[in-house]
Amino acid sequence: SFGLNIRLPFEQEANPWIASDPKLITFKYFFTRKLFLVKAAHAVAMFPGGYGTMDETFELLTLMQTGKSAIVPVVLVEVGPK
Q1: How confident is the model over 17-35, as a mean pLDDT?
Q2: What pTM, to 2 d.p., does this model score?
Q3: Any idea what the CATH number is for the domain that residue 17 is in?
Q4: 37 partner at 20 to 30 Å CA-CA among 45, 57, 66, 82?
């Protein structure tokens, strides 16, 4: 598995669980990050996030629905209260 991060001004850093992992890939543009997410995946687990996470989830589902991407298992992970 890989961690896919995006470099944005005034935004968060990579998740601490993957921040020091050599499999963390940081992208400059959303397009290349989303392309890598779709093309390299054999399955996808989506964890709670913000608008960007929702955008990536719907992009992936739309590409699979329209036949522009291979159909892969998608798991939407719910995180309980802290």
Answers
A1: 84
A2: 0.69
A3: 3.40.50.450
A4: 82
